[in-house]
Every structure is written in structure tokens, then in C-alpha cells.
């Protein structure tokens, strides 16, 4: 009994000492004082193509200029890294694409990497069918051999209307819920038309603004012959019509097409819609004027996404002070980013860099 009383006394003493060391409950309440801390470093992934439409290599930090809200920033680091990527491929198999399905199959297969790179980096692929209702053809897998065997059988025309915007929503959900790799990219092979989606252009753009995933659209080239009465007047054609475009310039991969290249109002809006949607993600639109170019373009985009540049900087205000982040009563602020290749004359035939042109901070 005496031993029990001693042990009990020791326990009570330890409990009292422990209680004395714990601050009062009020001290656990979160302070309402605003605390400002330096913002984290900002990283901007950049995809660049050279004057031949190939992945640009050997660029240095001094070849870039970067602006945040119009203020030039000091680039701290430039990294070129090969990253494992989860690709979501949206294949338009609707009736307007019927004649182009064989080239869509070839383009899908061109995205795959060499067996050595496949084993080392474990890229994965998911395929979504665009028809009257989008559906997942294949869930994410990195088994390229199996994909090469199954894709030609799955990528078949649906002879249906086109729910392209709905397909983008399904692709985003697939990436968010099922992708293993931190780096993701969406590639859409389409003629750009949409005539059956529940979601509209504005809603789809808002979705993509929140997604940390570049989206690239590869427009299947025009094969329709307009009736003679609707053809434009015969004028001497500029051999380089894309040279006047304000967007990226590719001698071999011209960007942008005129409305006369497509039949139907949905297809005529296609290039504009795709440009609006992809640019908000840091991606872009490529136009294959010949179907056989689809595979080359998709393959090149795949390489560029895997081997990308990453610019790192610490955002600085015009007064020379860094942005701050508040943990209480802060508001979301959108910052505009602009990346340029410099000097301009040296890189005038390169594409404009593909990157996400804004980010959000709480200030």
C-alpha cells in the first residue's frame, strides 16, 4: 500500500509539472495580427520551338527577359529538365473528322517516347474520345506496347456530332483524379468545331485558367473544297501567309487558318476557340495544312513538353521590394507575366515562348 501511495504521489507531481508547462487555453487562439512574409520563388515553365519548328536547345539565361506586371525581373535560375509527363490526348472522332481518322491514329502513336526513355521516365497516357458525348477510351497507362496494339482499334470514327468543350472538361477531370506524374499536358487533335457541348467557351476557359497544365490543340488541316460560288476571288497568294500573324511563326508549321478553310459555322469558329482556350494555359494552336503533318507536329509537341525550360525568379515591385503574402484578410491578386527571347533579331524566326501568362498570389 505504501508503495502504491508513493507511485501515486509521483504521478500527481509529474502531472502538475506538465500542466504548469502548458500555456493557458487563450494562448492557443490564433492571433489576428497580420503577418507579412516574402513570397515564394515563382517558376515559369517555358516551351520553345526554333525556326525549323523543332524543340529549341542550348538557350542560356541571358537569352530571356521576364516581366512581372510590366516590371522586368532578375532571372535567378534557368533549368532545362526532362520531366515525366502524364499526357491526356483528346481525339476528335466526330463526323467532320471521318476522312482524317487514319492520320489521327498515326499522330497519337507519334507521341510515344523511345523504349529507353519510357523505362527511365515512366510517361503515361490517357485517351479521350470526342463525339456526341466524350468518353474515356483508355485510362492512364505507361505500357506503350499495349497502347500501340490497342489504339488503332479504338480510334474509329463515330459519325456523331462534336462535344469538344465537354471533352476538355473530361480530360481535365481525368488528369486531376488519375494522373500519377506532377507534370501534365493535354493535346487535342481536332478540326476545332463544337456543336453539342453542355459547357460553353466561357465556362471552359474559366476551367482551364485554374489548371496547371498546358493545353495544345493540333488542328487537322483543311480538306474541304468550297463550292465555286463561295470561293474567294483569285488573287496572287502570299507564299508565307503566316508571316503576318501576330502569334508564333513556324515556316513548316504555320499557325492560324482563315474561315474559308472550313465548312459550317462550328468549324469556322474552331481556330479562334482553340487559340483562346490554349493560350490561357500556356499552350498554343498548331495547324497541319496536310494531314500527314499531324504526326510530326504531335511528336514535336510531346518532346517540347518533356524537355522544357524553367525560369525562376523572385517577384519584385517597382519600388524594389518583393511581393508579400498575408495570412489574414488577404485578397487574391492576378499578376501578368511576359517572357521574351532577347535580342529579338537573333530569335525572330523562333516561336513566341509558350508559357502561362499569369499567376495568383494572396496579398
**Radius of gyration in whole Å, from Cα?**
27 Å
Multimerization state: single chain
β-strand number: 15
Low-confidence stretches: 10-38, 223-264
What's the rounded overall pLDDT mean? 78
Strand order of the largest sheet: 8-7-6-9-10-11
CATH superfamily of the largest domain: von Willebrand factor, type A domain
Shape: globular
Would you state the CATH class of the largest domain?
Alpha Beta
In DSSP terms (H or I, runs of 4 or more residues), the helix count works out at 8
Major β-sheet profile? 6 strands, mixed
The succession of helices and strands, N to C, reads HEEEEEEHHEEHHEHEHEHEEEE
Shape-level CATH architecture of the largest domain: 3-Layer(aba) Sandwich
Helix content: 25-40%
Query: Could you say which structural class the secondary elements and strand pairing correspond to?
Result: alpha/beta
Classify the beta-strand content into a percent band: 15-25%
Separation of termini?
A: 65 Å
Structure description:
By secondary structure, this protein is of the alpha/beta class. It folds into two domains: about 35-80 and about 310-360, no CATH class; about 85-305, 3-Layer(aba) Sandwich (Rossmann fold). The chain is about 30% helix and about 25% strand. It has helices at about 1-20, 100-110, 115-120, 145-155, 165-180, 200-210, 265-280, 295-305, and strands at about 35-40, 40-45, 65-70, 70-75, 75-80, 85-90, 125-130, 135-140, 185-190, 215-220, 285-290, 305-315, 325, 330-340, 360. The strands form four sheets. The protein has a six-stranded mixed beta sheet, sandwiched between helices. β7 and β8 (about 135-140) form a beta hairpin. α2 (about 100-110) runs parallel beside α8 and α6 (about 200-210) runs parallel beside α7. It is globular. The termini are far apart. Residues about 10-40 and about 225-265 have low confidence and may be disordered.
Amino acid at each position: 500500500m505504501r508503495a502504491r501511495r508513493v507511485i501515486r504521489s509521483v504521478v500527481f507531481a509529474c502531472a502538475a509539472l506538465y500542466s504548469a508547462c502548458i500555456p493557458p487555453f487563450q494562448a492557443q487562439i490564433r492571433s489576428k495580427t497580420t503577418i507579412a512574409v516574402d513570397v515564394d520563388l515563382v517558376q515559369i515553365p517555358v516551351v520553345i520551338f526554333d525556326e525549323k519548328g523543332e524543340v529549341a536547345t542550348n538557350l542560356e539565361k541571358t537569352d530571356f527577359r521576364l516581366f512581372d506586371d510590366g516590371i522586368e525581373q532578375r532571372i535567378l535560375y534557368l533549368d532545362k529538365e526532362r520531366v515525366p509527363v502524364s499526357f491526356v490526348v483528346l481525339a476528335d472522332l466526330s463526323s467532320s473528322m471521318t476522312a482524317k481518322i487514319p492520320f489521327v491514329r498515326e499522330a497519337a502513336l507519334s507521341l510515344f517516347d523511345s523504349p529507353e526513355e519510357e523505362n527511365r521516365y515512366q510517361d503515361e497516357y490517357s485517351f479521350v474520345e470526342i463525339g456526341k458525348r466524350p468518353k474515356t477510351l483508355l485510362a492512364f497507362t505507361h505500357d506503350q506496347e499495349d497502347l500501340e496494339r490497342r489504339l488503332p482499334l479504338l480510334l474509329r470514327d463515330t459519325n456523331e456530332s462534336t462535344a469538344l468543350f465537354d471533352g476538355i472538361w473530361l480530360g481535365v477531370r481525368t488528369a486531376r483524379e488519375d494522373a500519377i506524374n506532377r507534370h501534365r499536358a493535354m493535346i487535342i487533335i481536332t478540326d476545332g468545331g463544337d456543336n453539342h457541348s453542355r459547357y460553353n467557351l466561357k465556362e471552359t476557359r474559366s476551367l482551364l485558367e485554374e489548371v496547371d497544365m498546358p493545353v495544345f490543340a493540333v488542328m487537322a488541316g483543311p480538306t474541304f473544297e468550297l463550292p465555286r460560288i463561295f470561293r474567294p476571288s483569285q488573287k496572287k497568294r502570299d507564299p508565307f501567309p503566316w508571316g503576318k500573324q501576330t502569334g508564333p511563326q513556324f515556316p513548316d508549321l504555320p499557325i492560324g487558318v482563315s474561315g474559308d478553310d472550313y465548312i459550317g459555322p462550328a468549324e469556322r469558329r474552331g481556330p479562334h476557340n482553340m487559340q483562346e482556350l490554349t493560350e490561357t494555359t500556356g499552350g498554343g494552336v498548331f495547324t497541319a495544312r496536310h494531314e500527314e503533318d499531324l504526326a510530326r507536329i504531335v511528336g514535336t509537341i510531346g518532346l517540347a513538353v518533356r524537355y522544357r525550360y524553367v525560369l525562376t525568379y523572385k517577384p519584385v515591385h517597382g519600388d524594389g521590394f518583393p511581393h508579400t503574402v498575408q495570412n489574414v484578410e488577404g485578397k487574391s491578386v492576378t499578376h501578368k507575366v511576359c517572357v521574351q527571347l532577347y535580342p529579338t533579331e537573333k530569335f525572330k524566326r523562333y516561336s513566341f515562348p509558350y508559357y502561362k501568362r499569369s499567376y495568383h498570389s494572396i496579398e
